[in-house]
């Protein structure tokens, strides 16, 4: 299983997949330029470690139904908490999570972010693997409308934090550099996968960037894995205000020609009727089947890992679509 994303959305997907098995690879966006990640990126030139740290913690913590393995070299829950712990005070360390500093230090010692992640996972006894989408830090650049008196005029906004906090409507994003190098290990994992998930998460900064790295997009097109898109439960303030679920799909489709087998949406977010019909049409543009089920946590705006895991397990139990490879060629045409 390979999960693509970043931040809290990827954490939710990884927690769901942990209930299905341990052979999981997380592929994480590396364009964050805010907070601790932004500081370490600017000062040390490392890829931003924050989302990578969150993925490590998600794979470190066992599902609730599991006990920590007796032969584990560390107490998983304790170390997951330590990775997220932020230093207090007002000095140079204030606000830095322990895990961010560990990854930055390991990267300097080993000279390679993939080796640093592998070493941290091994030391903590975490199952699976965490990989960066690219081995160099990337920048997000967006065309944002509704910032000028004429709503037809767009303004170019650069930087993930700036894009997320600028009022207006994001229409298109780009990665800088445009020919960003993919992580070779991530490309290999996608090629060998039985299942690839994309989303949920910040749509323009954690989801769409995964189809903007040329080599990774080609790997997604050519893999024989079942590809599942998990759609957000609601619009996100800053990135997707007033976006319908249908709009989420059409914006992703506008950024890349890619076949997807299943699109998962929460039943509570899309009632039966005209709106669901539009959503089915948008999913069909990916060659996908719309899967409507209860995947939200009660009285919350986050996905329930148990429910999401059960839906994905059911899709895999149904078998793999037989014409996936040909379908990708059809989409590109």
UniProtKB/TrEMBL annotation:
InterPro entries in the record: CofD, CofD-like_dom_sf, Gluconeogen_factor
Q: Which GO terms describe its cellular component?
A: cytoplasm
An MF annotation (GO) of this entry: LPPG:FO 2-phospho-L-lactate transferase activity
Highest taxon listed in the record's lineage: Bacteria
Keywords carried by this UniProt record: Cytoplasm
Instruction: Name where it mostly resides.
Output: cytoplasm
> Where does the protein end up?
Cytoplasm
GO biological process terms, alphabetically, are: regulation of cell shape
Xref: Gene3D superfamilies: CofD-like domains
State the family named in the UniProt similarity comment for this chain: Belongs to the gluconeogenesis factor family.
| PANTHER family in the cross-refs | GLUCONEOGENESIS FACTOR-RELATED, UNCHARACTERIZED PROTEIN YVCK-RELATED
Annotated function:
Required for morphogenesis under gluconeogenic growth conditions.
Write the protein's name: Putative gluconeogenesis factor
């Amino acid at each position: 299983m390979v999960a693509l994303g970043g931040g809290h959305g990827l954490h939710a997907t990884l927690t769901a997949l942990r209930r299905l098995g341990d052979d999981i690879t997380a592929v994480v966006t590396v364009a964050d330029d805010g907070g601790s990640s932004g500081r370490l990126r600017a000062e040390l030139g490392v890829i931003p470690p924050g989302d990578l740290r969150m993925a490590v913690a998600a794979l470190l913590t066992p599902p609730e139904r599991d006990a920590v393995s007796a032969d584990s070299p560390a107490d998983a829950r304790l170390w997951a908490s330590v990775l997220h712990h932020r230093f207090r005070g007002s000095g140079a360390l204030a606000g830095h999570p322990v895990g961010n500093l560990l990854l930055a230090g390991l990267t300097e010692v080993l000279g390679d972010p993939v080796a640093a992640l592998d070493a941290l996972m091994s030391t903590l006894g975490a199952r699976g693997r965490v990989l960066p989408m690219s081995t160099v830090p990337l920048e997000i650049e967006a065309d944002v409308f509704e910032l000028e008196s004429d709503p037809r005029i767009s303004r170019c906004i650069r930087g993930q934090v700036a894009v997320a906090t600028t009022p207006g409507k994001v229409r298109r994003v780009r990665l800088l550099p445009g020919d960003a190098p993919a992580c070779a290990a991530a490309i290999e994992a996608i090629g060998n996968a039985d299942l690839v998930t994309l989303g949920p998460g910040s749509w323009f900064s954690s989801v769409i960037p995964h189809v903007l790295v040329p080599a990774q997009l080609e790997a997604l097109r050519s893999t024989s894995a079942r590809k599942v898109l998990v759609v957000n439960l609601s619009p996100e303030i800053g990135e997707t205000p007033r976006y319908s679920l249908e709009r989420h799909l059409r914006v992703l489709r506008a950024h890349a020609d890619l076949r997807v087998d299943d699109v998962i949406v929460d039943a509570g977010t899309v009632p039966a009727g005209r709106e669901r019909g539009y959503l089915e049409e948008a999913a069909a543009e990916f060659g996908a089947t719309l899967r409507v089920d209860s995947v939200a946590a009660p009285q919350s705006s986050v996905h329930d890992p148990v429910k999401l895991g059960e839906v994905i397990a059911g899709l895999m139990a149904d078998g793999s679509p037989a014409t996936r490879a040909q379908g990708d060629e059809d989409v590109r045409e």
